[in-house]
Amino acid sequence: MRLLFIRSVSFGLSVASTLETRSVFAASTLAEYQFSAGRPVAKMHATAAGGAKMLRKVAASRRMLHAGKRPSSSSSGFGPRLHPFLHRRDNSSTASRVKTFSAAAGKDGGSSIPGDSGASDLPIAPASASASPAPGNMGPFAPVLLAVAVACAGSFAFGFNLSVINGPLETIAAELGIAGNKALMGLIVSSTLAGAALGSLAGGGVADSLGRRVSFLLAAAPMVAGPLISAAATDISTMAAGRFLTGAAIGLSSALVPTYISEVAPTRIRGTLSTLNQLSICLGILAALLINVVLPAAAWRTMFTAAALPAALLGLGMLLGPESPRWLASRHRDQEAELAARRLWGPRGPAELDSSRPAAAATANTGRAAAADVGSHPPGIAVAQHGGLAMLSGPAARPLLIGVMLFAFQQFAGINALVYFSSSVFRQAGVTSDALASAAVGATNVIGTVIAAGLMDRAGRKQLLTNSFLGQAATMFAMAAGFSLPVLQPYAGTIAVVGTLGYILSFALGAGPVPATIVPELNPLSTRGKAVSAAFVSHWVCNVMVGQTFMSAVQSYGLAPVYTFFGIMALAGALYVESQVPETKGKTLEQIEAELQTGAKMT
């Protein structure tokens, strides 16, 4: 037995001696554990201390063997505790990792592992935040794609409900007894926009208080009921009520969808998945156009009934779908957050979710500390608190302003006015079919959005948005010149068609999808819902302003000056993006939040 034990000890020591040094052996093992398990720094220090103790026991055992003594089982350190070390599979790659970690430690500092006499002490760099993968980057994508697809049902309903009214509006007015009354016909359209503005205004508080999933369920109910009420309407009051209810649901979901997607999507494809929001809106618009072509205007009740289907899918999907793990973590519902993270991001989800908790906790502590300081400030001084008016000051003010301004530039650059006027433009060019004109505009929008989805995580948000605004400005100026310069009058129709499609393509490549993508990314978790809602309130208010003033402005000043104004606003938007909007490509939401809170420059 003595001989057998000594042989086993000698075998263990021979395995250890195959590495460069015993200290390299211990450091490499610890470095590999740091790579594979992603443990916190405190646990790594504890492991390092255990490794150092084990090395001292190994050295003591060797000295006792050389002296002809049998080491005790307690001092040898062999058995199950050495088993993981004796069965490492790739010692060469591990040694190379140690060199990398040692070089990093020489720069950044680290903890040393003491060995026995003659062994060098190699430092191990502390685990860094950048070394751990962003949430979902290493996990399966199918659960994330399914969650995003369910959320995008709300975006599809958004586009469908806004556009389905265009085809049968005259027929609806005749059946409801308001034919020829432009004001009441306008009420059918404007009631939806008014509801959307109010829904966006209320949506932020609901999303931050009740969570993303519950808010989706609350939005799905009126999104189903509104179109069904409109389908059953026999008078203008019922029709307006149904359209207003539909608009309120659209406003709520318009802020929820990009927020939810940004929180569940993996960092490296977050931009691409966020673009699906805008793509779903475009597909909803195209579907409404298609149903207007396929069904006669007299079948408008069937059209409204069909509008309830995507909303029903949204509600059913969210009943079975996961909540945002980040929102759950911010509410200290740790067990639920881990379950949701595992559903979305796979087995590594709970460990990866840990990276979001420090930022959420810091934000909450900042809010509580600021609230505690309210009484110590003189009256009339704004104090940074956890949401509300405090968003107008402190670190949350900049991303809030960026969101509001981006949607204002988007609308005042004339996108909805151009779409509204596109049928007339195509008629002047000899295209008499309004459906064909609308189809050309819608198809261009979809194609551009698909291209933007592929470029979002490559070129970046800022570059796409700047180039988009510049393209919109160039096409607006070209169309204004075609309408006003006598030398271009023979080509005015061609310039108008090419300019319109070029403008739509430019919009779809950046100004369409990027604002809804970047606004949730920039805003901190504690106020993300409210900030995104404020941005979409800006969207709807500016939308109504442009819609209400466009035709009167054209009648008063002419089309060329109005298009020139749109071009100037698009150019101003490009300058604003270039000077004020930071890039978020390739950064986790927590990294973006930390940089904005500390005032670090974001390129």
From TrEMBL:
Residue intervals passing through the bilayer: 141-163, 183-202, 214-234, 240-261, 273-294, 300-321, 400-423, 435-456, 468-488, 494-519, 557-577
Bilayer topology annotation: Multi-pass membrane protein
Compartments it resides in: Cell membrane
Xref: InterPro entries: MFS_dom (IPR020846), MFS_sugar_transport-like (IPR005828), MFS_Sugar_Transporters (IPR050360), MFS_trans_sf (IPR036259), Sugar/inositol_transpt (IPR003663), Sugar_transporter_CS (IPR005829)
Protein keywords: Cell membrane, Membrane, Signal, Sugar transport, Transmembrane, Transmembrane helix, Transport
Similarity comment text for this entry: Belongs to the major facilitator superfamily. Sugar transporter (TC 2.A.1.1) family.
Protein name: Major facilitator superfamily (MFS) profile domain-containing protein
The organism of origin for this protein: Volvox africanus
